[in-house]
Design goal:
With about 110 residues, the protein is of the alpha+beta class. The chain contains 2 helices and 5 strands; from the N terminus they run αβββαββ. Strand 2 and strand 3 form a beta hairpin. Bound molecules: adenosine monophosphate.
Length: about 110
């Protein structure tokens, strides 16, 4: 499987493609995965365009940390007391969409993404 040529999540951020939004801040957007692998499957993305988490560094790590904060806030909003977080990093890590995203899944998720 190869990286998609078009960054579909950039188009979602730009409002050109609709999404089922769960949560939004100035820097983060979260929406339901179009092909859910668990009862609840949410994608949490930074609005800033990072292709993969391989781009994390000493200057920007707080921006990546915001993804975890968003997950906690979403769980509170949805009444989830526990959840699973998963990130595919890079093409060789199984990532398909070339825009950083954290998968947030309800605990019934039990298979590889
Ligand atoms: P990954 O393999 O980590 O890159 O995961 C990409 C995820 O994006 C998959 O779980 C897809 O189902 C999901 N996805 C692709 N296009 C959309 C879309 N337009 N809206 C919501 N989720 C999407």
């Amino acid at each position: 499987m190869t990286f998609m040529e078009k960054n579909i999540f950039a188009e979602i951020i730009a409002g050109k493609i609709p999404c089922d939004k769960v949560y939004e801040t100035d820097t983060i957007l979260a929406f339901y995965d179009i092909n859910p692998k668990a009862k609840i499957h949410i994608l949490i993305i930074p609005k800033k365009e990072y292709q993969t988490a391989l781009e994390v560094n000493e200057e920007n790590f707080a921006e990546f940390g915001e993804l975890f904060l968003a997950a906690k806030n979403i769980a509170k909003k949805l009444g989830m007391t526990g959840y699973k977080l998963h990130m595919n990093v890079g093409e060789d890590g199984g990532q398909i969409v070339p825009h950083v995203h954290l998968h947030m899944l309800s605990p019934d998720y039990n298979a590889p993404l």
